[in-house]
Write a structure and sequence with these properties.
It is built from three helices and eight strands, in the order E-E-H-E-E-E-E-E-H-E-H. By secondary structure, it is α/β, with parallel strands linked by helices. The chain has a single domain, classed as Lysozyme-like (3-Layer(aba) Sandwich). The protein starts with 5 loop residues before the first strand and ends in a 9-residue tail after the last helix.
C-alpha cells in the first residue's frame, strides 16, 4: 500500500445542479487528446467522487497513485465533489462558487473521517487543490472549513464511538 500523507479536495468544474458521475469524469480523463480528450489518462484522476445527492462513487483504487494534483499525487488521495460553478444572476456568465449541497457536505465529512481513520491521519492533512495550484478549485477555503466545521464534527463523532466502545457496545462475545 502507498503511504498516504494528504487528502486533496477538488471540484469538477461543472455547473451548479448538473449532476455528473465518476464514469463521466473517467471518460473525460481517459479520452485521448487526439480524440478530443483533455488528458488521456489511463483512469480517472480522483479516488472518490461525491455526487449532488451525496452518493460517493469510487474512482481509482487507493492503492493507485492518482492524477489530480501535480507534485502531490504519490502520497495523496483525491476527492472531487460535483460542481464548482454557478451562473451570475441576470446574465449568461458563470463564476466559481462553492456549490456543494448539504448532502455533499455530509458525504464529504463521512468520507474524510473514514480516510483519516483508515490511514491514521489528522485533519491537518486535508487540503484544497488551490493550495497547490493557481486555481479556484475547490471553490471554498478548505483549511478554514476543516478548522471551523469538519474538526468539531469529527471530534464529536470520534467521542461517540469511543463512548460506545467504553460502554462495551460492539464487544465480541463468544458463545
Amino acid at each position: 500500500m502507498r503511504k498516504i500523507t494528504e487528502i486533496i479536495i477538488h471540484c469538477s468544474d461543472t455547473q451548479e445542479g448538473c449532476d455528473v458521475t465518476a464514469a463521466d469524469i473517467r471518460r473525460w480523463h481517459t479520452t485521448p487528446k487526439e480524440k478530443g480528450g483533455k488528458f488521456g489518462f489511463r483512469d480517472i484522476g480522483y479516488h472518490e467522487v461525491i455526487r449532488l445527492d451525496g452518493t460517493v462513487e469510487h474512482g481509482r483504487p487507493y492503492t493507485d497513485v492518482g492524477a489530480h494534483c501535480e507534485g502531490h499525487n504519490t502520497n495523496s488521495i483525491g476527492i472531487c465533489y460535483i460542481g464548482g460553478r454557478k451562473i451570475v444572476e441576470g446574465t449568461d456568465k458563470w463564476e466559481w462558487a462553492d456549490t456543494r449541497t448539504e448532502a455533499q457536505k455530509d458525504a464529504l465529512c463521512r468520507t474524510l473521517a473514514a480516510i483519516l481513520i483508515c490511514f491514521n491521519l489528522q485533519p491537518s492533512c486535508i487540503h484544497g487543490h488551490r493550495e497547490y495550484a493557481n486555481k479556484a478549485c475547490p471553490c471554498f477555503d478548505v483549511r478554514q472549513w476543516v478548522r471551523d466545521d469538519f474538526e468539531p464534527w469529527f471530534k464529536e463523532q470520534k467521542k461517540k464511538v469511543d463512548d460506545m466502545l467504553r460502554a462495551g457496545v460492539g464487544e465480541r462475545k463468544d458463545t
